[in-house]
Design brief:
Layout lengths: L1 H39 L6 H22 L15 H36 L12 H31 L21
Helix pairs in contact: 1-2, 1-4, 2-4, 3-4
Length: 183
Amino acid sequence: MPQLSTLLQKSALVLVLLGAVGMVSSMFLGTADVVGTQFLGVPVPGALEITESTMVLIVFGALAFAQMQRAHIRVEILHGYAGPRTKAFMDAVTHLVALVFFALLAWQGISELGYSWEIREATMGTVRFPLYPARFLLVVGTVLLLVQLALDVISDLGRMWRGEPPPPPPGPTLTGGELPQGI
């Protein structure tokens, strides 16, 4: 299991870095498109289509990494007052629900990827941009998240059995009114 976790961490990190490259590329492309359209009267061909596809990479590429960091948004109204076993139970239920949701999303994503590949689906804009790479990235990001969620469910159930508190989130944590350095 440690080898799977290491492979998953590396894969998730690669997707996050690709997402970062996609975000920077989209930023420059969007800026060039706005400047070209507003000041030169010449838009960048395919800017919308490329930006739409990179959004899939940005969002779905970061899901597994965020789950590893336990950085997804969570409402902790009751969680903060619960004991270790109850917290582990709540985490397990949450991760199981997420596992079901994202399994359904992956299932449909795989179906859509197959169809998109079969018909060589592309955008209808000025520049025909293929859509199946974005669908592939959606499936890859979702499958990585599913593996991480499965590992988290196993971990949560183990913590519940042993009565251990949840692991602290990686990185700096804030308590009442503190601001991180530099803000």
